[in-house]
Specification:
This protein is mainly alpha-helical and 118 residues long. The chain has 2 domains: 52 residues, no CATH class; 64 residues, no CATH class. Helix content is 77%, strand content 0%. It is built from 4 helices and no strands. Helix 1 runs antiparallel to helix 2 and helix 3 runs antiparallel to helix 4. The longest helix has 25 residues. It is flat and about 40 Å long.
Length: 118
């Protein structure tokens, strides 16, 4: 029961329309962005649920790929430290933002990138 890429593209297009509509109705760009983020998250959730096996072969725990996972985490930690030290953001919120942003981005990459196992 997998969704076609055309359907997913339409769902993300609708997310953009929802974001613009929220911006025009509320009058603030922030509300439009929050609506866009929520609509894209809902689209991603529906897409992930529709996939038959989202983790099928995506999380590879060989030594070489574990270093890649660690590298993604370290990049997130460096960006968190930069936000805290340079921009004065609170530590807890910055760490949660890092985990959410880097974690979901990296998980999406792992799910969508075809893996060739030797």
């Amino acid at each position: 029961m997998s969704l076609s890429m055309r359907t997913v593209g339409r769902m993300f297009g609708l997310s953009g329309i929802i974001g613009v509509a929220a911006w025009l109705v509320d009058g603030t760009v922030m509300m439009g962005m929050l609506a866009l983020i929520a609509a894209c998250a809902a689209t991603a959730l529906v897409w992930a649920i529709a996939e038959s096996s989202p983790f099928g072969g995506a999380i590879d725990l060989r030594a070489g790929t574990l270093l890649g996972h660690l590298g993604a985490f370290l990049v997130g930690m460096v960006s968190t430290l930069w936000m805290v030290n340079s921009l004065g953001y609170p530590l807890v919120e910055s760490a949660l933002t890092m985990l959410a942003t880097v974690g979901t981005g990296y998980a999406t990459y792992l799910w969508m990138e075809p893996n060739v196992k030797a």
